[in-house]
Design goal:
mainly alpha; 0% strand
Length: 525
């Protein structure tokens, strides 16, 4: 110890000077080697395992000093790592001497080793690194939380149209990885899973915050009105009757009102949120490759560390990004159709007389939204979003036809108008070959394409078809009295509820009488 103190005084003012316990560890190791070569051969005359006893004594003496030092460590510091690594090396050297000296003993040196309780320096280092990791991750999460609350999701902020906070959170994550691999510790591969898992949770938290409060598909779909039957007034009378657009319109979801007017939830802002999640998912692959590079340069890395890919993977964030893009894309699509364009869809399309309130205003306005979205979102998510808007448009069109409230009614002659208008929607998304692939359009418009012929069908044929569908669905219970089929929302030409709704909006006396007799449906809500 005196020698260590002397060495410390000499090196105290030198750059990168060693901690006194690191110096002591080296000196104790040198002393053990000297003891083994000089004194143990002589002392073997009195004790067969003199070297083992000597190193066990040295191990205990240094252990007492180390124990006091470790009890005062609260965080990872260069001194702490320096001392603990020196202690670990010393212990391994002392154990090796004890084993070699006791090789001829009955127990192979186990008795001596039992007298040398391990320093567990690597465990102490690992625990300190875990504290360091937790501190870094907590700081990163606090930063993300604070900055995402201030984020305005402005598409003009940068050329790639994703959030500046995303750039910063990825930079901090990269800096944390860099700092981890610069730690002078012997076990980077063993502790890497803890770091990756912590950063993964933090990045997942940012993703969840990015999509929080933006709603979903169900946020914007209106509540369906109760079923009614048509008031079979003549079309001639309807020409001179002033339209009451508020009567019997479907009630919009109350949650929509809470999002209306908030700039952070406008269509361009939702596009930026989607771009942000796409950017994070893209960067995950880059980060994982960077981790591999760091590992290759790590002094303690082994071959098996590269075969175990799971420890280097961000497991939570990629799936959170995929789910987030899906949720935001659907929310954006249904917000456009059911909220931003409600005045030309719910409040306008086919109100009163179908021929005088057709699809064209809706087509004109949605085209502007599509241009804005196409200019804002990343090209790799553009098709998905436009497809979701197509799906929302088809859903909106069908809801107008099948759940549009008593302000709407259709004759068989109106079926051509409906088919032509629906073709206009499909043509918009096809855009003469510059839009969505025709296969995609056909796929997501198939339900409407199968239901539209019902509006052309004869009323008596529709009633008969409804009876048969109800009998098939409810069996013998439907023979005495037809049950009122529940609304599943899954429209289909053979679904009893779908057929019933076509009858509800059929402006014909036969349909109205059937609904009155069978279900006593009112004409007004």
């Amino acid at each position: 110890m005196e020698k260590a103190d002397s060495s410390r005084r000499v090196s105290r003012n030198a750059p990168n000077s060693l901690h006194v316990l690191a110096i002591l560890a080296k000196d104790v190791g040198d002393l053990a080697v000297h003891e083994k070569s000089m004194f143990s051969p002589i002392l073997k005359t009195w004790h067969p395992f003199a070297a083992g006893v000597a190193v066990a004594t040295l191990h205990a003496c240094y252990g007492n000093e180390l124990k006091q030092f470790v009890s005062g460590i609260t965080e990872l510091t260069p001194d702490a790592i320096q001392v603990l690594r020196a202690a670990d090396k010393l212990e391994k050297d002392l154990v090796q001497i004890a084993v070699e000296d006791s090789v001829d003993s009955d127990d192979g040196g186990k008795g001596i080793i039992r007298e040398m309780p391990p320093y567990e320096a690597e465990t102490v280092i690992a625990n300190l690194v875990k504290v360091w990791i937790k501190s870094r991750v907590d700081t990163m999460k606090e930063w993300a939380d604070r900055n995402i609350q201030q984020e305005v999701w402005n598409p003009q902020t940068n050329r790639d149209k994703y959030a500046p906070s995303c750039v910063e959170v990825l930079r901090i994550l990269d800096d944390t990885l860099e700092a981890f691999f610069q730690l002078p510790i012997p076990n980077h591969p063993a502790l890497l899973p803890d770091l990756v898992a912590g950063l993964d949770r933090c990045l997942q938290y940012y993703v969840m915050k990015t999509k929080a409060g933006c709603g979903s598909k169900s946020t914007y779909i209106p509540t369906l009105p109760a079923l009614t039957r048509c008031s079979t007034e003549s079309k001639f009378h309807g020409v001179f009757k002033k339209k009451d657009k508020s009567r019997g319109l479907p009630k919009r979801n109350s949650q929509v009102a809470t999002t209306n007017g908030e700039s952070s939830l406008g269509i361009p802002q939702l596009c930026v949120r989607i771009n942000t999640l796409h950017q994070i998912k893209s960067e995950i692959d880059v980060l994982e490759k960077r981790v591999i590079t760091h590992l290759r340069n790590s002094e303690s890395a082994q071959v098996e560390d590269f075969s175990n890919g799971l420890s280097k993977k961000f497991d939570l964030t990629p799936s959170a990004c995929v789910e987030g893009v899906q949720q935001l894309s659907e929310a954006l699509a249904y917000k456009v159709i059911f909220h931003d364009l409600s005045h030309v869809l719910w409040d306008g399309l086919y109100i009163g007389d179908a021929s005088s309130s057709r699809i064209y205003p809706f087509i004109q306005e949605i085209e502007q939204f599509l241009l804005t979205i196409s200019d804002t979102v990343h090209e790799k998510v553009r098709t998905r979003i436009i497809t979701d808007i197509l799906k929302a448009s088809v859903d909106g069109f069908l809801l107008v036809l099948l759940a549009g409230g008593p302000s709407r009614s259709f004759t068989r002659q109106d079926s051509q108008i409906l088919e032509d208008d629906f073709k206009s929607i499909k043509d918009l998304f096809w855009a003469n070959g510059d839009g969505l692939p025709i296969e995609l359009i056909d796929k997501f418009s198939a339900t409407a394409s199968h239901i539209l012929p019902l509006f052309r069908s004869d009323t008596e044929a529709l009633i008969d078809r409804f009876r048969r569908a109800a009998l098939e669905a409810y069996g013998s219970a439907a023979k005495s009295r037809l049950p009122l089929p529940p609304t599943s929302g899954q429209w289909h030409p053979s679904d009893p509820n779908t057929l019933l709704r076509v009858l509800c909006y059929r402006n014909e006396d036969a349909a109205s009488k059937f609904l009155k007799k069978t279900y006593n449906l009112p004409k007004k809500l």
